[in-house]
Amino acid sequence: xxxxPPALGELRPATELTERARRALLLRDSVEGLSxxxxxxxxxxxxxxxxxxxxxxxxRLAPGTVKWLSFTDCVLENCDLSGALLRGASFxxxxxxxxxxxxxDFSECSLRSVRFQGVMLRYANFSRTRFQAAQFESCCLDGAxxxxxxxxxxxxxxxxxxxxxxxxxxLKGIDLRSMDIRGVRVVGGELAGAIVSPVQAMDLARLxxxxxxx
Length: 214
Known about the structure:
Pentapeptide-BTB/POZ_domain; Pentapeptide repeat-containing protein; 5peptide_repeat
């Protein structure tokens, strides 16, 4: 699976992230070609907010209610998205590196060419999210929800899905061997065709009520 990297060019250092976002909402403009460090995006509300060709380093990103929110060709590094309301947002060619996004709401998002690297995503919500070339590398997804997610292109590499909610997400062809999947929760045939290790298969058999005997 090929994931296209962000096409970042030369960026201009900037400040006052929240005010720039509010101005863009008001003028129906985008925030583009800027680099923010130790800044914050908080409490902005409106119809549409687009970030393009931006880098965020050690920023707090917790927008309010934005009907259409998009990140295109962006890098988020060491950022805090804990509890962020990102429902329905669009992410295209985006990398999140060493961020904290515990409890963040990514439900109904569109994730195209998105890479999560070393991100804390405990109890994050990916319900009904569309994955198109997305990868989780060494991420903690314990207790995360993937109800009815559509994994057209989704990969996991290291990390954990302990007690994650996978109901309604087809896992056919997805390799889970590098993941800790103890206690994952399913409601039907989601695991059909998933790639697992022998040890994982035994744990899953117990989960599904299969009695293993010599």
